[in-house]
Design goal:
The complex is a heterodimer of chains A (about 190) and B (about 280). In chain A, a hairpin with a 3-residue loop joins strand 2 and strand 3. Chain A has an eight-stranded antiparallel barrel. The longest helix of chain A has 19 residues. Chain A is about 15% helix and about 50% strand. Chain A is elongated, with a radius of gyration of 20 Å. Chain A has two helices and eleven strands. Chain A has a single domain, classed as Lipid/polyisoprenoid-binding, YceI-like (Lipocalin). Chain A is mostly beta strands. About 5% of the residues of chain A have low confidence. Chain B has one domain. Chain B contains eleven helices and no strands. The chains are: A mainly beta (about 190), B mainly alpha (about 280).
């Protein structure tokens, strides 16, 4: 009788265990966004985006320190609704897309933040310069879409100085602070 | 469009620095002063926009650091006046190679990089040889003025090809050449050494302008601009007893070709940056 009880407990625990383990998600490029906003002529803000973000998320709600984020943006996919401006952004005046074709973020540590948020510290590499940044990441939800595909969503808003990454083109005409909003939808692997 | 601040940094500053060096060089009859004036003026303009780190983040910024050895070559050429000194113009090849190397392997093949560098080296040596002929047969002032015109045209083309910073540096080089053209005189020894400095800078500017931005300087424009200074030799072919005929013919040939390339490129860039009147959503962007 005792043996059966122990076996049943072990079975229940083994079934429950995966829900506490780290879950790996692949970024869905269609339902994810990476938007940036910069001041123009010290007058107004305009926004652009990097289409089709890529990467992987590992989320562990029980132990956030086991979570990780590895995000890749393709500079060639910058889109500001103006072809001429997009081409200029890809030149060495700004991102230098041919020499540095990607922007990457690789987390180095994840801590629990306020509420459901995480404090994610990682290496942001852009224009050949790598800087450590700490980003508050909010877990925006979990669900299924399409049916059968488990998803988890995260969002992060942070500000970087483009001059910190050696991007000094048109200083004065364009602001130095760039606000970034990244919303990612991950599909469970 | 060039802002007032940029004009002060990349036009006025190089002009003043080069003028000061060239004026002293003319007064003291230093043969090395003219190439130094060009190099110092160019570096001053570049530095006022921003001194790039070493090694630079952007491959195009190698032009700043390479201007130092290239100026040294110009000084050696002016001091020694070696018969085969025109071969120093082949420095245009290594300049192009170093500028293009950071694009390997994802944006340029080894073949394209080496081929472009070899072509630039050949063009550089050829132009420096032509510079000696132009100095001898048309005059040193025409030689430097012609280089200034081509450099200015190349700057406009690069500026219009989504590499604004490259255009600014080209303007700095053109602004540095202008006072040297004014201060150089027939008795200035070995003024051809100015080409030893200017030609590799021109080659580096055009190589960067072609390979880095998209769409960059076209192959046609690159080839025409790199060989344009050789058109100064037209002046040597013009018969005439009046002293001004040959320089005018030479400069006219260079100016017409350069303007024919630079003006449409600048206008096309201006048009591309304007809102499309046929776009119904233009007002909402």
């Amino acid at each position: 009788m005792l043996n059966r009880l122990v076996a049943a407990c072990l079975l229940v625990l083994s079934l429950a265990a995966p829900s506490f383990a780290a879950e790996s998600y692949k970024v869905d490029p269609v339902h994810s966004s990476a938007v940036f906003r910069i001041k123009h002529a010290n007058v107004s803000f305009f926004a652009g985006r990097f289409n089709a973000p890529d990467g992987t998320l590992v989320l562990d709600e029980a132990d956030p320190s086991k979570s990780s984020f590895n995000i890749v943006l393709s500079v060639d996919k910058v889109d500001t609704a103006n072809e001429k401006r997009d081409a200029h952004l890809k030149s060495p005046d700004f991102f230098n897309a041919k020499q540095y074709p990607t922007i990457t973020f690789k987390s180095t540590s994840v801590k629990k933040g306020e509420g459901s948020a995480l404090q994610v510290t990682g290496d942001l590499t852009m224009h050949g310069v790598t800087k450590s940044v700490t980003v508050p990441v909010e877990l925006t939800g979990k669900g299924q879409f399409p049916p059968g595909t488990q998803r988890a969503g995260v969002e992060a808003t942070f500000t970087v100085k483009r001059s910190d990454f050696g991007m000094n083109g048109m200083q004065g005409m364009l602001g130095d602070d760039v606000k970034v909003l990244v919303g990612l939808s991950g599909m469970k692997q | 469009m060039l802002t007032v601040d940029e004009a002060l940094r990349v036009v006025l500053a190089p002009l003043l620095v080069a003028a000061a060096v060239a004026a002293v060089g003319r007064w003291r009859q230093w043969p090395w002063a003219m190439p130094v004036a060009v190099g110092a003026g160019f570096l001053a303009g570049y530095a006022l926009v921003g001194v790039p780190r070493l090694p630079p983040l952007d491959g195009t910024d190698w032009l700043f650091w390479l201007a130092l050895p290239v100026t040294a070559l110009g000084v050696i050429d002016a001091l020694i006046g070696w018969r085969w000194g025109w071969l120093m113009g082949a420095a245009a090849g290594p300049v192009a190679l170093l500028i293009l190397a950071p694009l390997r392997p994802h944006a340029i093949s080894v073949g394209a990089m080496v081929g472009t560098s070899l072509a630039m080296a050949a063009a550089g040596a050829g132009l420096c040889y032509a510079a000696r002929l132009v100095e001898e047969r048309v005059g040193p002032r025409t030689l430097v003025a012609g280089l200034c015109v081509v450099m200015g045209g190349a700057a406009v083309v690069v500026f219009s090809s989504n590499l604004r910073s490259g255009g600014l540096y080209g303007l700095a080089a053109a602004a540095a050449l202008a006072p040297v053209a004014a201060f150089v005189r027939t008795r200035t020894p070995r003024a051809f050494a100015v080409a030893t400095v200017a030609v590799p800078i021109l080659a580096g500017l055009l190589a960067g302008g072609h390979f880095y931005p998209e769409p960059g300087v076209t192959w046609t424009h690159l080839v025409l601009l790199i060989v344009a200074p050789a058109l100064l030799l037209i002046g040597a072919l013009v018969p005439g007893k009046r002293r001004w005929v040959r320089p005018v013919a030479a400069l006219l040939a260079v100016a017409v070709v350069t303007a024919a390339i630079a003006a449409p490129a600048a206008l096309a860039a201006k048009k591309a940056s304007e809102p499309d009147p046929d776009d119904p959503y233009a007002a909402y962007k």
